[in-house]
Design brief:
92 residues, mainly alpha, Arc Repressor Mutant, subunit A, two-stranded parallel ribbon
């Protein structure tokens, strides 16, 4: 089991991200609703951006509501996010 180090909010977001199945994506807004804070989509995006555990905690599976990729804090940045999503057969 991985011990997470971050704020209570970040850990809540990261634990939720671990439940997003491979090959599926959610929007920042859907994640915010999923953790019971429907107005916190921007804060969710910030928590994803601070995720030091990527790609083990799959923040690459979170995209913008308009279909845009958003950002990616893992090594390789946005190109790597796209590569990870394509490897999981996500249509982007």
């Amino acid at each position: 089991m991985m011990i997470l180090s971050g704020t209570k909010f970040q850990i809540k977001v990261w634990n939720y991200l671990k439940k997003i199945p491979k090959g599926k994506v959610k929007t920042y807004k859907q994640v915010a609703k999923g953790i019971g804070m429907p107005k916190a989509s921007r804060a969710v995006a910030n928590a994803c951006g601070k995720n030091p555990y990527a790609p083990k905690i799959p923040c690459h599976r979170v995209i913008r509501s308009d279909g845009g990729l958003g950002g990616y804090s893992g090594r390789g940045g946005i190109r790597q996010k796209l590569k990870l999503l394509r490897s999981e057969k996500v249509e982007i």
